[in-house]
Amino acid sequence: MIIYGVAFLAFCTLAGIFIGELLGKLIGVPANVGGVGIAMLLLIGLGSYLYKTGWLKGKTEQGVEFWSAIYIPIVVAMAAQQNVYGALKGGPMAILAGTVAVVIAFALVPVLVRIGNKAPETVTPPNTIG
């Protein structure tokens, strides 16, 4: 059922946020450290395992696909919860780090396009006219 896919996604999200909060406390940061990323890794890893073992079937997978279709707005909403004002007030390092990350990402787009558009190499047989 589709609801199982949504429940699976909710479980991964809650587990990721819990682990992120725990990591934050362990390193002394009063914030969630990588909770969304951990949730996505859990979703990919656990989802792959469940699919291979036959636990994640067609209708359940539709629930996960539904939420993956709206993944970007969810991440934007989660990022909006972050303390952007605090990061900007903290100094120019946050602005520099963000700018450098965006510039590097834009610079890698042509490289990724070239990698994705590579045609498979064909082997031409030697000329055997003789």
Could you explain how this protein is built, in words?
This protein has helices at residues 2-27, 35-53, 58-69, 71-80, 84-89, 92-116. With 130 residues, it is mainly alpha-helical. It folds into 2 domains: 1-82, no CATH class; 83-118. Helix 1 packs across helix 2 (35-53) and helix 1 (2-27) crosses helix 3.
Sum this structure up briefly.
Helix content is 75%, strand content 0%. It is an all-alpha fold and 130 residues long.
Distance between the termini: 66 Å
Average pLDDT number = 77
* Overall outline: flat
SSE order, as H and E? HHHHHH
Number of helices: 6
Portion in helices: over 70%
Q: What Rg is obtained from the alpha carbons, in whole angstroms?
A: 22 Å
Low-pLDDT segments:
none
Residues in β-strands, percent:
under 5%
The quaternary organization reads as single chain
Structural class: mainly alpha
Q: What is the domain tally?
A: 2
**Count of beta strands:** 0
The largest sheet is: none
What attributes characterize this protein structure?
130 residues, flat
Topology:
Layout: H1 2-27, H2 35-53, H3 58-69, H4 71-80, H5 84-89, H6 92-116
